[in-house]
Amino acid sequence: MSEDTLTAPVQEHRFPCDNCGADFRYDPAAGLLKCDHCGNTSNIAGAGPWGGDVIREIDFQTALADNLPSQEMEEIRVSQCPNCAAQVEFDPGVHAAECPFCATPVVADTGRNRHIKPKGLLPFALEEEQARNAMTDWLGRLWFAPNGLQDYARKGRRMTGIYVPYWTFDADTASSYRGEHGTVYYETRRVQRNGKTETVRVAKVRWRLASGRVARFFDDVLVLASRSLPKRYTDALEPWDLSALEPYHPEYLAGFRAEAYTVELADGFVEARSYMDRVITRDVKFDIGGDRQRIHHIDTRVSDVTFKHILLPVWLAAYKYRGKSYRFVVNGRTGAVQGERPWSAWKIGFAVVFGLILAAAIGYGAALSQ
Predict the structure, then answer these.
(1) Contact (CB, 8 A) for 255 and 82
(2) Can you give the pTM of this predicted structure?
C-alpha cells in the first residue's frame, strides 16, 4: 500500500490532565487515569461493564480482500529496532531510547504504519513494583543464576509495560474422516528363556474400518502477532482470561507502550488453523474409539471465520550483563514470569566439585564398613 493512501490520523496515546496539563497514566490498581504530578484522576469514558461498548468480531474474508471500512483501521508511528526488528509505537517526546525487547540502543523512527485497529485489550492489573518483585523472586529461585545479574536486575532500571499484539480467531468446522478402530487382545505363547520354557501373553490388535463426522466451533483461538519475543516465553505466560477483555480505548495505553503487529492476519490464521487441525485430530480419535486408532484421511470444511486484533499486557525487562542480553517477561495480570535462564559457571563448577567430594566420602564410608 502506497504512502499516499495512508490517510488515517496518527495515534498519540498521551492524555493531558485537565487540572495541571501533565500527562495522565493508566493506574492498574485504581482502574482509571491518574496524574502523578497533581494526583488528579479521571475515568475512561465508555469503559467498564456499563460503558455500552461491545467487542465485535470482524469477518476474515472481508479483511483478506482489503475491504475493511476505514473505522476498522488506524495509523500509528513506530520505531523499529535494528537488532530484533521489534516495532513499538513511537512517543514523539522520546527521540532516542533502548529497545525494550533487547536493550539495543535505537534512534526513534517516525515511519508510519497503517494496520487493523485493536478491538479489545486486557488492562494491566499489576503495578511495575509488583512485576519487578515477581521477576526477582523468580531469579532468586534459579540457584545457578549469576549473583551479579540478580543484583543488577534488582537495582536496574524500571521495567517497561508493553501491550503485546495478538489475533484471536473464531470458526465453525465440520470434518469427515476415514480410519480404523483397533481392539487389543492377547495371545498366550510358550517361549524359551534362559533354558526354561515360559508362558507369556502377547498383545495383538484387531483392526476394523471406521468412518464418521465430527464438528466443533472454535472460539478465540489465540495467536501471537509479534516476532519480538520467543514464542516459548509468551506461550508460558498463558492462560489469559479473555472473558475479561475490555473494548479498546486508547486511554488504557496512557503511560505504557504498545507493539505493532508484525505477523500479518493471513499468517496468523495459518497458525490458528494448525491448532484447529490438532484439536480435530483428537476429536476424530475419540470418535473412532477403541483401544487404538488409525486415521487415514480427514476432510475439514471451515466456515464463518471471524477475528479480532487484541492487546495483552506484559511487563518486560531487558538487561545487558557482561556483554549478553537477558530478557524477562511478566504477565501483567497474573504475575507469571518467563525469561532467559542465566547460568553461573562458578556455581556449576562448585556444585560439580561438591558432588564429587560427596560421592568420594560416601564411597570411602562404604569401604570402611566392609
Answers:
(1) no
(2) 0.81
